[in-house]
Amino acid sequence: MYVHSWHAQARIDPTDWSLHTVVTTALERPIDVKFDPSGSAAYILDFGHFEMLENSGLDAEARSGKVWRVPVRDIM
Fold first, then answer.
1. The pLDDT value given to residue 21
2. Cys staple from 48: which of 62, 64, 72, 76, with CB 3.0 to 4.6 Å?
3. CA distances (Å), 31 to each of 15, 16, 46, in order?
4. pLDDT value at residue 29
5. Is 54 exposed, middle or buried (0-12, 13-18, 19+ CB in 10 A)?
């Protein structure tokens, strides 16, 4: 099971509900995670810098998004 938070990715071990950090690099806005067909890596989609402002505007930075590849050995 994976938990999306504002700036990190973590793995929860369902046997004891312990929390394990997966990505320690600051993520702007992680929005999805998928595993490759072989199951050897996870790909985390980070939308990048995007904030809604109080005055109905937005603050976004072009090309700030990334796709992170995390080997499964680093997750387990």
1. 76
2. 64
3. 26, 26, 6
4. 81
5. exposed
List of the chain residues with pLDDT < 50: 1-6
CA distance 67 to 28: 12
pLDDT of residue 2: 41
46 strand-pairing partners:
30, 66
Phi and psi based region of residue 48 (left: phi greater than 0; alpha: psi -120 to 50; beta: remaining): left
DSSP states of 17-41 as a string?
A: TEEEEEE-SPPS-EEEEEE-TTSSE
**Domain with 9 in it:** 2-75
